[in-house]
Write a structure and sequence with these properties.
Structural class of chain A: alpha/beta
Radius of gyration of chain A: 15 Å
CATH topology of chain A: Rossmann fold
Low-confidence stretches of chain B: none
CATH superfamily of the largest domain in chain B: Vaccinia Virus protein VP39
Strand content of chain B: 15-25%
Mean pLDDT of chain A: 93
Oligomer: heterodimer
Largest sheet of chain A: 7 strands, parallel
Number of strands of chain B: 10
CATH superfamily of chain A: Methylesterase CheB, C-terminal domain
Largest sheet of chain B: 7 strands, mixed
Low-confidence stretches of chain A: none
Radius of gyration of chain B: 19 Å
Number of helices of chain A: 6
Shape of chain B: globular
Number of domains of chain A: 1
Largest interface: A-B, 26 and 23 residues
CATH class of chain A: Alpha Beta
Distance between the termini of chain A: 16 Å
Strand order of the largest sheet of chain B: 6-2-1-7-8-10-9
Helix content of chain B: 40-55%
Distance between the termini of chain B: 45 Å
CATH architecture of chain A: 3-Layer(aba) Sandwich
Mean pLDDT of chain B: 96
CATH architecture of the largest domain in chain B: 3-Layer(aba) Sandwich
Number of helices of chain B: 10
Chain lengths: 194, 269
């Protein structure tokens, strides 16, 4: 991974995952600096349970506050956002979040594809999409959309994922830029910080 | 994905030909909805969808039905209904008459949930539930009070999680994969089309529920609708929104006081 390739301006990083992803985030988030030069958006398949428990758990491991998104909340550089349970998370060109409670996609709400595609449309080449562990094919179409819009796409090394199916699917179907283990993913998130 | 420019043309057609104004709907979600119709109905191109909409009025009904989101369930978000049951309804008990507005009621699941809560609190006899939607087809379904039997397992679980202690199946009779809810519930409901984009206030209410409707609107339209709700609420009336909807980004916020973390506010000035 050459540093020169990563100096392109990055306005947002979107991380998606399913089964086995929370444990990865619990390792990635502590490695993040206190000040981020991009917005970090996290979309996870999760149970519709106690509202802010997951955001609190992630925040407890980070120097940053991980905040669950409200509808029409402004998207700001330096902030970390978590998609709420049971809504699709979309981004408007005016840089506010929109939520959507419509039909599940890939048996999931939030669907990673929906958020990835929406982010690709807004951020184009200034977006980095990262797909983590999971047992479902959600996310692959979204990564392709990010790539088509000129963004960088990265997946967790399947051998390091608790459930390898999701990253494997992306490696097969999308023209992935990097396949990284957890340590390398943490390094990437820091390199993208300018 | 369809182009912004094409979507503008389509929205313009809908307004000019049929009077439906979707221009202030949240764009990202609206675009997905149109894209979904293109795929589901197998239109070979966007131009063909546009032509069909312009030339085939019955298709419009189908289009509007598919464009708007009608995903709902009874006692959706049981924690919310628990607060309604335990705290909000008690505040209405002293009223001689209780008026409730379900704005954007879709197929009516939440209206029936409300009627069950009121009945169990022994308040249904002096309540009226106004249920509105822009979409006549879903209203017709709500009015008839038939629901799919397969949904009753989830509904019943939600009911119990919301603090319900009756046998949920005592509220309906099942036949041939469908259930019909008791008419003692529906006789206090008034169904009517109402478009939050263009129609005005039509009564004064003690409680307005509008859950997971505002998310489909942009900020300007949300502002309009929240004003409309403010104007339609009695002093100390309650406003209930969806789990991730908020007054935080709106100018009416100072006129309300948050009553519960479950996205319920009270009009205080």
């Amino acid at each position: 991974m050459e540093k020169s390739k990563l100096t392109h301006s990055c306005k947002a990083v979107i991380i998606g995952g399913s089964a086995g992803s929370i444990e990865v985030l619990l390792k990635l988030l502590p490695a993040l600096p206190e000040t981020l030069t991009y917005a970090l958006i996290i979309v996870l398949h999760r149970k519709h349970t106690a509202e802010s428990a997951l955001a609190e758990l992630l925040t407890s491991k980070s120097r940053l506050i991980i905040h669950e998104v409200d509808d029409k909340e402004p998207l700001k550089t330096g902030k970390v956002y978590l998609a709420p349970a049971d809504y699709h998370l979309l981004i408007e060109h005016s840089l506010v979040f929109s939520l959507d409670a419509s039909e599940k996609i890939n048996y999931s709400r939030p669907s990673l594809d929906v958020s990835f595609e929406s982010a690709a449309e807004v951020f184009g080449p200034e977006l980095v999409g990262i797909l983590l562990s999971g047992a479902n094919a959600d996310g692959t179409a979204g990564l392709k959309a990010i790539k088509r819009a000129g963004g960088l796409i990265v997946v967790q090394k399947p051998e390091t994922a608790r459930v390898a199916y999701m990253p494997q699917q992306a490696i097969q179907e999308a023209n992935v830029d990097y396949v990284l283990d957890i340590f390398e993913l943490a390094r990437l998130l820091n390199l993208l910080n300018n | 994905m369809i182009e912004e420019h094409d979507l503008d043309l389509l929205l313009n057609d809908l307004f000019e030909l049929y009077g439906y104004d979707f221009t202030n709907y949240a764009r990202a979600s609206l675009k997905r909805r149109v894209q979904r119709i293109l795929t589901l109905d197998k239109f070979p191109s966007f131009a063909e969808l546009r032509y069909r909409l312009r030339s085939d009025e019955p298709f419009l009904k189908h289009f509007v039905e598919e464009l708007t989101v009608n995903v709902t369930e009874m006692f959706r978000d049981p924690g919310f209904y628990k607060v309604l049951r335990q705290d909000v309804i008690d505040n209405l008990r002293a009223k001689p008459f209780i008026r409730i507005w379900h704005a954007g009621c879709s197929t009516g699941e939440e209206v029936y949930s409300m009627a069950i809560l009121l009945k169990e609190a022994n308040l249904l006899h002096k309540s009226l539930l106004y249920a509105t939607d822009l979409n006549p087809t879903v209203l017709e379904k709500a009015r008839r009070g038939f629901f799919s039997l397969s949904e009753m397992k989830q509904n019943s679980e939600n009911y119990i999680a919301s603090g319900g202690v009756q046998d949920f199946s005592s509220y309906y009779t099942a036949h041939y994969g469908q259930v019909k809810f008791d008419e003692s519930l529906s006789e206090k409901m008034i169904f009517s089309t109402h478009n939050l984009v263009s129609d005005s206030s039509f009564n004064e209410f003690d409680l307005i529920l509008c859950r997971n409707v505002l998310i489909y609107f942009d900020k300007a339209l949300q502002e309009r609708v929240l004003r409309l709700f403010y104007d339609s609420l009695a002093q100390l009336g309650f406003l209930a929104l969806g789990t991730r909807e908020t007054l935080r980004f709106s100018s009416v916020e100072p006129k309300f006081k948050q009553f519960s973390q479950e996205k319920i506010w009270r009009k205080v000035s």
